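Issue 218. Parser rejects a valid record. Input:
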Amino acid sequence: MITLRKLGLLLATATCIAALMMPAVGQAAAVDVPDQVLVWNQHAIDELIGTQGAGALQYLAPVHGAMYDAVNAIALTTVDGGYEPYLVAPPAEPTYSENAAAATAAYQVLVWLLPGRATQLEGYYNDSLAEIPDGPDEQGGIDVGSAAAEAMKRARADDGRPGTPSFTTTSFTVGSNPGDWRPFADGLAGNNFKWIGDVDPWLVPDPSRFATDGPLRLGSAAYATEFEQVRSLGAANSTTRTTDQTAMARFWADNAFAMWTRILRQLSGSQDLSVAGNARLFATAYLTAGDAQIACFQDKERWHFWRPQTAIRLAETDGNPATVADPTWTPLLPNPPYPDHPSGHNCVSSSIVETLKDFFGTNQMSFSATHSTLNITRTFTSFSQAIAEIRLARVYGGIHFLTADAKGAALGKQVARYRQAHYFQPVA
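Output the parser choked on:
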C-alpha cells in the first residue's frame, strides 16, 4: 500500500529526474549534424569523377580549398585556434556554424564549376541546411562560406581549366622517332588532358621547378633491363607475374582520386577528425595533389616518351641490341591517352602519401581499401607501403617503365615537401 508520504517521495524523485534530463535555461539541446565536409566531399566526388576523368582533381581542389577557408575562419576565433588560410579568412565568430560554412562554400563553388547541375546541387544544399539548426549562427556560417567561395571564384576565374578564357585544347606532342609518344587505337579513349599541365598552380610558384631529368637513354643497359622487366611482368598473357601482382595491378588501376578519397574518408573516421580537421585534411590532400599533377603533366609534354607497348613493338628502332621487338605485345591494362614519363598515378599518390604522413605525424597507420567494381581489397600498415606498391603495380599492369614510376613518386614527394614548408601552418 502506497501512503501519501511515499507517493510524495515518488513524485519528487520523478520531478528531479525529469529536471536532470531537460536542458538548462538558455541552453539549446545538442543537435547531431552530419559533418558537412564529408557530405559535400561525397557530392563533389559523385559529380566530378565520372564527368571530368583525369581532370577531376583540378575541380576537387577549389571545392575543398573554399571549404577549408570557410571552416578555418571560424576555427581561428576559438580557443583552440586554426591554421593559416589558403586564400582568405572571412570575419567570423566562434559560435558560427562550421557545417553551414562548409556546405555553403562547397555548394557555391560546385554550382560555379558545374552550372548545368545547379538544380541537383541546390537540392543537396537545401538538405544540408535542413540538418543545421536555424538561427544567427547558421546565418553567420552561411555568410562565411559565401565569402570563401567568392574568394575562390575570383582567384580561379581564368586559371586554364576548361571553360575559362585561357583554356587551350592543344594535345601532347606526337612523334615518329624512337622514344616518341604516340596514341593507341586500342588504348583508353578521350581527351588526352594536356591542358592539366597548363593550369595555374594551386600552391607552388612554378611547377617546372619539379621537372625530372627524364627517362632512361634508349641505348643504355639500364633501359634494356627495364624494357625486359615490363615486357615480362606487364604482358596481358604474362607467365612470370604472380596472382598477387596481377591483383595489385588491377587494384591500382581504379580511379586514383576516388581510391584515395575512400582512404581519406576511412582515416577521417578511424582518427575521429572534427569538421575543421576534415576540412584541412581534404584541402591539403587535393591542393597538393593538384600541383603534383600539374607539374607531372608538364613533364609528360617535356619528354613525350613512349609507353612500353610502343617501345616493345618497335624495339628494332631503339638502337639497343639488348632489346627484342614483339609486334603483338599487349599490356595487362589499357594504355592511358598520354605519355609514359613520369607516371601520373605516382606523382599524385606520392604527394598524398607525404601529405598524410605530415598531417598525422606518422608513417605508421593501418588502413585498407577496396576496388570500386572488382572484389579486390588491399591492406596496409603504413602510408609508404602504399606508394611502394603503386610504383610496382604500374609495371605489372604493363603501362609504365619503372623509371617513370620512381621519378613520378619523387616529384610528388617534392611538391608535398614544398607545401609542408609554406602552407597550412598552425596559428598560435
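Fixed in the parser; the record now loads. The first strand starts at residue 364 and ends at 370.
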